[in-house]
Amino acid sequence: MFIHMLKDQLGNEKVSQNETALFACSHDESPHQAVEPEVVCFPESREDIEKILEIARTYHVPVTSFGAGSGLEGQAIPIQRGIVIHFEKMNKVVDFSPEDMTITVQPGLTRKSLNKIVNRHGLIFPVDPGADATIGGMAATNASGTTAVRYGAMRDQTLDLEVVLADGKVIHTGTRAKKSSSGYNLTGLFTGSEGTLGIITEVTLKLHGIPEHTLMARCTFDDIETCAAAAQTILLSGISVMRMELVDATSIAQVNAYGAYDYPVHHTLFFEFAGMKAAVEEESVLAKELLHDLGCRDWEVATDPAKQKEVWRTRHELSYAFTHVKGMRDTGADVCVPISRLPELVSYARELIEESGLTGGVLGHIGDGNFHTIVLFNPKVEGEQERAMYTNDALAMRAIEVGGTCTGEHGVGLGKMKFQKAEHGEAVEVMKNMKQMLDPEGILNPGKMFE
Amino acid sequence: MFIHMLKDQLGNEKVSQNETALFACSHDESPHQAVEPEVVCFPESREDIEKILEIARTYHVPVTSFGAGSGLEGQAIPIQRGIVIHFEKMNKVVDFSPEDMTITVQPGLTRKSLNKIVNRHGLIFPVDPGADATIGGMAATNASGTTAVRYGAMRDQTLDLEVVLADGKVIHTGTRAKKSSSGYNLTGLFTGSEGTLGIITEVTLKLHGIPEHTLMARCTFDDIETCAAAAQTILLSGISVMRMELVDATSIAQVNAYGAYDYPVHHTLFFEFAGMKAAVEEESVLAKELLHDLGCRDWEVATDPAKQKEVWRTRHELSYAFTHVKGMRDTGADVCVPISRLPELVSYARELIEESGLTGGVLGHIGDGNFHTIVLFNPKVEGEQERAMYTNDALAMRAIEVGGTCTGEHGVGLGKMKFQKAEHGEAVEVMKNMKQMLDPEGILNPGKMFE
């Protein structure tokens, strides 16, 4: 009945029960169990989404949003079936104002497409989670990535969201001003709410000037503790790195094996310096001195694009090297801790991987205290997935214990629900009350975030 | 009766009805009507605050928080009397972790005291609203100031808040990790909530390395439009200024008159460049070229502290020059708009001041699109205060019309309540529901933020 109503209200061409569409929206890039929705809608406007939510309210049907499917915690999986809103047709630029360094886009635009548009004007949207995620998905999960050390996460780069609430009201959470002290901060609240509080229909973002000059560098250390200490030293020195990444020795070996390379099999730090030329050069020289004092080896720098790619190759190819082992799947942790606790957490991560008997690496956005594991498992071998998942869980709990978070950038979704009480304590009740207030019927992405 | 209970629970020494204490907590630095509370409490711990809130709940008495009294919108004025919580005894450092570049403090510590502590370790807490406000007050209003162009506002610099809710629950809104995608963003929600959703009892802040080198500069332009265009040009060039401030010609004349100086009476831009030496020097040279292309005059730079102070003197002495005119009081707007709308808004501000027949200046954190007026009025001359207030109101409405905010950094308090509906539309209902949910009895700073 509700599917009939959707076709009636949106038109047949925006409503699909085609097997391909149902399958496409059944899973993301995580190992969480796929579930197909009953129907996929392809809205083209906010008005379409208002109609979908009205039908969902009337028939009490769950509504789950789907962007690029690049999520890593199952946020987009419609575990209670119902309607999936697929944003692929809502990928337009609503308003681009280069002189204000802001852009308003529909949620289905991907970050790479966005950058193609703004780059021509000397601007970048710097948040870079790796995958070519949609801006809506990135806002919904408060995504970040390699550049967070300089630009923060989506929440830091978002000025305004247009949101359709469960009751049909349409709100704007902010304005186009760069800062405001007016009203309660709803922009931050809806950013990272994973489609559980409302459906985002427009996102207004800050843009930044493309740095004049970029320089990449790499060096190695014998132990992980010194890598973390090195990252601390760089941050304390006031060098404003663009990126600062850790890849552990096991992961380097994996990339070497996968790509037939011969990189030194040591824990490796990758740097990107970006800004004005003199600044970048001075920063890289200072960084080199500081890192040498800590015993770094194999320091290599590159300014031209081809050489830069070469210097960063092991970082770039890492995920691919792990995930393309035949017949294997992968999972990983996403903890973020106060930077002084990084060495012990990274060591603990390595221990957990060794104990699991599985192959896995540690890599991270070490400047934020955020790091990941990638642990391979064979889904056909009994117990392997459970052992892989255990490494994630143990690491999340330890991160919370040392004053950090179970998820630095991937979000809660299905995988981190069980840690909400441990991490947030009494605040979980406040969060649940907000959910109850904004979605009393529980139609928005039910079964996510809170148990 | 409730005062008796307060004395009983907290001890007499923490509870005062002394006229001096009542008067001190009756007003802030704004012209909003002073109102004395019935009693002032001086808690020393979170436990004291829990006791105060329990008594407030039991006897249904309003509770208003008071920091340094440097607010500009009456947030701390106990307009429904009752209890004021004065934070002067809660000014301790709870946890300082230089290696994590974080610090946790009680809300009564002022930002200058905080900086004294962290500066010794090569660190700064950069948010600078001018006044030596308390960290609690700054968090409660989402304060910012001259450095927001680089570091953002309090919300961007706050990792975690400990909050006592109206129902007595104690929550932490975040963790000590630099970023997180876990749970709903309560840190951002309580930051800027002006004591209406809970009482902040601890604030955990990000710290930054002290820039190695600082350079200040000044230049003038013939018209305000070009000043705004110049600010845009600098931002688009990718120069990461530490401060970029506008002071209009009228204000320069006021400072000249007040201090017997002889500065060029033109619209003036002030810059602070900060970072590594080579970077700062390169940035200042590029800035000079860009500004000269736009027709700037009187370019002056300074690197040594005495000369820096001299270069920035008119900016520093501005507020003082206006507010110390004998017998006069002052008020001012606090709008923030998309930067392309700055020229017209600043021109409109000047028109409004001319039309009012009052003396006033325009100054601003032009890199954020945030600017203020300072309008002098004689409270004894009928109609002057009303005319001064009208300039604020007209400017706030215009800012909202062009996609900006009625308050960039001072907060809502009493003065900006009437603009909430115009600025936030339907979102105001969501905000009111949050207030209702978290403070159903309306004991927390009643009569503020929403009409």
Element layout with pairings:
2 copies of one chain form a homodimer.
Chain A: H1 2-10, E1 15-16, H2 19-24, E2 39-41, H3 46-59, E3 63-66, E4 83-86, E5 93-97, E6 102-105, H4 111-119, E7 123-124, H5 135-141, H6 148-151, H7 154-157, E8 158-164, E9 170-172, H8 186-190, E10 199-206, E11 208-209, E12 213-221, H9 224-236, E13 243-247, H10 249-259, E14 267-275, H11 277-293, E15 297-302, H12 305-311, H13 313-323, E16 329-331, E17 334-336, H14 342-356, E18 360-365, E19 370-377, H15 384-401, H16 420-424, H17 427-438
Parallel strand pairs in A: 2-4, 3-4
Antiparallel strand pairs in A: 1-2, 5-6, 6-10, 7-11, 8-9, 8-10, 12-14, 12-15, 13-14, 13-18, 16-19, 17-19, 18-19
Helix pairs in contact in A: 1-3, 9-14, 10-13, 14-15
Average pLDDT confidence of chain A is: 95
State the CATH architecture of the largest domain in chain A: 2-Layer Sandwich
Task: Tell me the radius of gyration of chain A.
Answer: 22 Å
Helix content of chain A: 25-40%
Summarize the main sheet of chain A.
Answer: 8 strands, antiparallel
Structural category of chain A? alpha+beta
Q: Total domains of chain A, how many?
A: 4
Low-confidence stretches of chain A: none
Percent strand of chain A equals: 15-25%
Oligomer: homodimer
- CATH structural class of the largest domain in chain A: Alpha Beta
EC number (chains A, B): 1.1.2.4
Enzyme class (chains A, B): oxidoreductase
Cofactor (chains A, B): FAD
Keywords (chains A, B): FAD, Flavoprotein, Oxidoreductase, Transit peptide
What does this molecule look like?
Two copies of one chain form a homodimer. Chain A is α+β, with helices and mostly antiparallel strands. Chain A has four domains: 2-86, Uridine Diphospho-n-acetylenolpyruvylglucosamine Reductase, domain 2, CATH 3.30.43.10; 95-209, Uridine Diphospho-n-acetylenolpyruvylglucosamine Reductase, domain 3; 213-311, Alpha-Beta Plaits, CATH 3.30.70; 325-423, Alpha-Beta Plaits (2-Layer Sandwich), CATH 3.30.70.2740. Chain A contains 17 helices and 19 strands. Chain A has helices at residues 2-10, 19-24, 46-59, 111-119, 135-141, 148-151, 154-157, 186-190, 224-236, 249-259, 277-293, 305-311, 313-323, 342-356, 384-401, 420-424, 427-438; strands spanning 15-16, 39-41, 63-66, 83-86, 93-97, 102-105, 123-124, 158-164, 170-172, 199-206, 208-209, 213-221, 243-247, 267-275, 297-302, 329-331, 334-336, 360-365, 370-377. In chain A, strands 12, 13, 14, 15, 16, 17, 18 and 19 form an eight-stranded antiparallel beta sheet that branches. In chain A, strands 5-6-10-8-9 form a five-stranded antiparallel beta sheet. In chain A, strands 1-2-4-3 form a four-stranded mixed beta sheet. In chain A, strand 8 (158-164) and strand 9 (170-172) form a beta hairpin. In chain A, helix 1 (2-10) packs antiparallel against helix 3 (46-59), helix 10 (249-259) packs across helix 13 (313-323) and helix 14 (342-356) runs antiparallel to helix 15 (384-401). In chain A, 59% of the residues are buried. Chains A and B meet through strand 9, helix 8, strand 11, helix 9 and helix 11 of A and strand 9, helix 8, strand 11, helix 9 and helix 11 of B. Chains A, B: One of its GO terms (molecular function) is D-lactate dehydrogenase (cytochrome) activity. Chains A, B: This is D-lactate dehydrogenase (cytochrome). Chains A, B: It holds the Pfam family FAD_binding_4.
